[in-house]
Design brief:
Layout (H helix, E strand, L loop, with lengths): L1 E6 L1 H14 L1 H28 L4 H7 L1 H31 L8 E7 L3 E6 L2 E6 L5 E4 L3 E5 L5 E5 L6 H15 L3 E3 L2
Parallel strand pairs: 5-8
Antiparallel strand pairs: 1-2, 2-3, 3-4, 5-6, 6-7
Helix pairs in contact: 1-4, 2-4
Length: 182
């Protein structure tokens, strides 16, 4: 069973975006950075509130601009980080000439292996190398390592049943349970 499609920069950017959102390591990194930044922003207002002789509520009303920063940071930091990651991904994917990297691609789910064919050549991976199979609303990602995956857009199939049959074939041969991501 084969899927033939045009692989675009947006397809690979979608993989990077998905990986950044679902990777435990990336998640820990983001939470750690956000936590440190939020704590750093709270040092000055917290110090003022803890050392004042005036009532806490009255002091808080006096220093409300200092308290607004951490609140706004907590609200906007995650959407900003997602937007920034997407921008950085697009820039990285645009570096270099990328000759024959994008364009026509074919992924065949054969009896013994997955075979990806591009104008630059072919890659063959045994079914035992498949670590994870993820279905999103727009793509299928077949991970062969923690950071490498075959990217198959849903548009490669004319019907949803063809897409599902392809996913089922990969799941059957690899023995890996399909993960759905919304």
């Amino acid at each position: 069973m084969k899927a033939t499609y045009e692989l675009t920069r947006d397809d690979l950017a979608t993989l990077i975006d998905y990986h950044q959102r679902s990777s435990p390591a990336a998640r820990r990194q983001k939470i750690g950075c956000l936590g440190v930044a939020l704590c750093a922003m709270m040092i000055l207002p917290g110090g003022i509130l803890l050392t004042t002789d005036k009532p806490v509520l009255e002091t808080a009303m006096d220093i409300w601009p200092l308290l607004l920063g951490p609140i706004l940071f907590a609200i906007f930091a995650i959407p900003y980080m997602r937007w920034r990651t997407r921008q950085m991904s697009n820039r990285l994917l645009s570096e270099g000439q990328n000759k024959e990297f994008y364009g026509r691609c074919e992924l065949e789910a054969g009896a013994d292996a997955l075979t990806e064919t591009r104008p630059s050549g072919s890659t063959i991976r045994n079914w035992t190398s498949v670590e994870r199979v993820v279905v999103t609303p727009s793509h299928l990602f077949v991970y062969t390592s923690g950071i490498e995956a075959y990217v198959v857009p849903r548009r490669a199939f004319s019907t949803e049943s063809e897409f599902k049959a392809f996913v089922d074939k990969i799941a059957e041969h690899s023995g890996v349970e399909v993960q759905a991501f919304c």
